């Protein structure tokens, strides 16, 4: 889907332009093998730690992130498998929002599948190594529960 590193950089730039949002840290970019739909290019994944002004809600932030995706050319088709697992120019997920736990039709926090995904947890280690998930599991414990390997900037799972 084009220059994936440039796509990530463009998304990060757009996030820095959001009013009331500050990018505090960004992980390295990792190339990760596709999940589910394996016959496609590897994905580039990166995690940001951001701070938001107190008047920004989780849903408001997600809406802004989805608008960035749309402005970059992403067309979402709901939860269609070709959209969830297929090639796309950018995919911005909201993983956590402080200690907020919620489930609405738009958003579930913490992200419901993040502890199952090395392509999320490995970059998350760069920006929040001290992270503890609701329930008390640490980031390192979550990673230790997965079967994966990392070589330089590549993650296999």
Write the SSE topology.
Blueprint: H1 4-16, E1 21-26, E2 30-32, E3 43-45, E4 48-52, H2 58-71, H3 81-85, E5 102-103, E6 108-109, H4 118-127, H5 139-144, E7 149-151, E8 154-156
Parallel strand pairs: 2-8
Antiparallel strand pairs: 1-4, 2-3, 5-6, 7-8
What is the architecture at the second tier of CATH?
2-Layer Sandwich
Rounded Rg: 15 Å
CATH level-1 class:
Alpha Beta
- So what's the overall shape? globular
* SS field, number of helical segments: 5
Quick one: how many beta strands? Answer: 8
Average pLDDT over all residues: 92
- Kindly report the name of the CATH homologous superfamily: 7,8-Dihydro-6-hydroxymethylpterin-pyrophosphokinase HPPK
Order of helices and strands: HEEEEHHEEHHEE
Structural class: alpha+beta
Task: Point out poorly predicted stretches.
Answer: none
Enter the CATH topology name. Alpha-Beta Plaits
Q: Give the percentage of residues in beta strands.
A: 15-25%
Task: Tell me the domain tally.
Answer: 1
Oligomerization status of the protein chains? single chain
Helix content: 25-40%
Euclidean distance between termini CA atoms: 21 Å
Strand order of the largest sheet: 3-2-8-7
Tell me the major beta sheet. Answer: 4 strands, mixed
Walk me through this protein's architecture.
The longest helix has 14 residues, at 58-71. The protein has 5 helices and 8 strands. The protein has one domain (4-156): 2-Layer Sandwich (Alpha-Beta Plaits), CATH 3.30.70.560. The strands form 3 sheets. The protein has a 4-stranded mixed beta sheet with strand order 3-2-8-7. 31% of the residues lie in helices and 17% in strands. The protein is globular and about 40 Å long. It has 157 residues and is α+β, with helices and mostly antiparallel strands. The protein starts with a helix and ends with a strand.
């Amino acid at each position: 889907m084009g220059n994936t590193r440039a796509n990530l950089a463009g998304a990060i730039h757009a996030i820095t332009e959001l009013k009331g949002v500050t990018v505090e840290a960004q992980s390295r970019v990792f190339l990760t093998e596709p999940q589910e739909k394996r016959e496609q290019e590897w994905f580039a994944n990166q995690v940001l730690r951001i701070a938001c002004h107190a008047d920004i809600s989780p849903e408001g932030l997600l809406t802004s992130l989805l608008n960035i995706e749309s402005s970059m050319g992403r067309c979402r088709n709901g939860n269609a498998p070709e959209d969830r697992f297929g090639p796309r120019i950018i995919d911005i997920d909201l993983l956590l929002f402080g200690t907020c736990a919620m489930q609405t039709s738009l958003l579930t926090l913490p992200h419901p599948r993040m502890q199952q995904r090395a392509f999320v947890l490995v970059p998350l280690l760069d920006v929040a190594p001290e992270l503890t998930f609701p329930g008390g599991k640490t980031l390192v414990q979550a990673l230790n529960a997965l079967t994966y390997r990392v070589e330089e900037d590549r993650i296999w799972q």
